[in-house]
Amino acid sequence: MDLNELIYTRLAEDKELSGRLAKYAGRPAIFNTEFPEDQAAGWEGKHQYPRICYRVDMQVNQERSADGTLHVTIYTDKNPLELDALESLVRGCLKDVLMKPHDQAPFCVAWSRTEPYLIDGMAVIYKDILYDILEYPGQETTDPDPVMAVSTYVKELYPESVVLGIDRIGDYTNPADKPVFFCRLEDIRSTTGYCMHSISWFLARVAVHLLYPNALTRLKMIAGINQKMAVDEEIIMLDQSPMYLNELNMDSKADYLREGQLTITGKYGCLRGGEKKHNLTGVGIGMTN
C-alpha cells in the first residue's frame, strides 16, 4: 500500500470511528482529496454526515523539520460535541503509529494544530486537523557503522522492543504494543587520536528516539540506556572494534518524534590501508670490466 492507502485503512478499520461516520457504497465516508457528488448513487439517498476528507502534501517543510503535511478534515451537522469526539478519535488513531508504504521508509504523523470552521449558508461545521509527516529513513553508513552499533546495543538491552533498521516491520507498527526505537545519525567528523599513521579517527553523534505513548515509561527506558552506556564507556561495533563514548546527553523534554531523547557522541577508528612503499626511480645497472 502507498501512504494514502495506509492512512485510509488506518482510519476506516477503527471500529468506533467508522461506526460514527456516514456510509458511502457500504463503507465509512472517508475520502482522499475530494468528495463524491451529493447525488452520487453510493450515498443511497441517506444522510451524508459525518464524513472525513484527507489530503497528503509531500512538500518538505524545513522550518518545521517535516517531510510533508497531512490534512484530515472532519465534517458534521451543527453538532460541536460530535465534532470534538470525532477529532479525538482521529488523533488517537494516528498518534505515534508508524506506517510503512511499499518500498519506502516508515512514516509517522505528528499533530500540529486544529482549525475549526463554519460553512456559510449551510448547517455544517468542520475541523481541519493538520499533521506534520515525518520520515524515518535507513541510517546505515559504512563499515564500521556507528548507527548500527548503537541500534544493536539498544536491541540487546531491550530485546522485546522494535528497533528500526534491525527489525522487519509491516504496514503498521504501533508503539502502544511494543516500544519503537529509531537511531538517527546527526553527523560524523574527523578528529585526532593516537597512531594517526595507521588509524583514521572519527567522532559520531547519534540521536536515539523512543516512541511510546507513556511518558514515564519513555523516561525510564531512555534513562536505562543512558546509565548502561555510562557504565560500559564503550560500544563494540559490528567489526568488533570499540567506539568510545565521549558524551551522553539525555533530554527527557525533547520532541521524541523529531529530535530524540538521547544524543550519543562516540569516537571510533578505521585502519588505514597498507603502508605505501616509496618507489625507487632513476636507478640503473652499470657494467664494469
Biggest sheet details: 6 strands, mixed
User: End-to-end distance, in Å?
Assistant: 87 Å
Structural class: alpha+beta
Helix content: 10-25%
Number of DSSP E strands: 15
Rg (C-alpha, Å): 27 Å
Unreliable parts: none
Taken from the alpha-carbon principal axes, the silhouette is elongated
Q: Work out the strand percent.
A: 25-35%
The number of helical segments is: 5
> Looking across the biggest beta sheet, what order are the strands in?
9-11-12-15-14-13
| Run of helices and strands | HHEEEEEHEEEHEEEEHEEE
Mean pLDDT: 90
Quick summary:
The protein is of the alpha+beta class and 289 residues long. The protein is 21% helix and 35% strand.
Could you give the topology of this structure?
Elements: H1 3-12, H2 15-20, E1 23-24, E2 27-28, E3 30-32, E4 51-57, E5 68-77, H3 80-94, E6 98-99, E7 107-118, E8 124-135, H4 146-157, E9 162-163, E10 172-173, E11 180-191, E12 199-211, H5 215-232, E13 234-236, E14 242-250, E15 262-271
Parallel strand pairs: 3-4, 9-11
Antiparallel strand pairs: 1-2, 4-5, 5-8, 6-10, 7-8, 11-12, 12-15, 13-14, 14-15
